[in-house]
Amino acid sequence: MSKKQTEEIIIEILKTIYDPEIPVNIYDLGLIYEIDLYEEDEVKVLMTLTAPNCPMADQILEEVNDKIKALPQISDVTVVLTFDPPWDKDMMTEEAKLELGFL
């Protein structure tokens, strides 16, 4: 499986993870800044949250880690949380903006 195929699978997995307070997945919300594949089986995800004091932060990060690590082709996952740049609604996909009534 190519890195591109693995990245596409990871994106599909990220689209199954939701911020409990917002009915849009974390990928379409624009919370995923980078997905880096090292070798063929190691992944680093650079992400943010909608707010630094998000009460569900640990749960969301753990779910990202666990779901990616469950892939048979992945042996190691590193999830890095950043608030630089801070998230804002302009980072959302058009689909997410439409769903939340921003369009």
UniProtKB/TrEMBL annotation:
<dbReference type="InterPro" id="IPR034904">
    <property type="entry name" value="FSCA_dom_sf"/>
</dbReference>
<protein>
    <submittedName>
        <fullName>DUF59 domain-containing protein</fullName>
    </submittedName>
</protein>
<dbReference type="Pfam" id="PF01883">
    <property type="entry name" value="FeS_assembly_P"/>
</dbReference>
<dbReference type="InterPro" id="IPR052339">
    <property type="entry name" value="Fe-S_Maturation_MIP18"/>
</dbReference>
<dbReference type="InterPro" id="IPR002744">
    <property type="entry name" value="MIP18-like"/>
</dbReference>
<feature type="domain" description="MIP18 family-like">
    <location>
        <begin position="9"/>
        <end position="79"/>
    </location>
</feature>
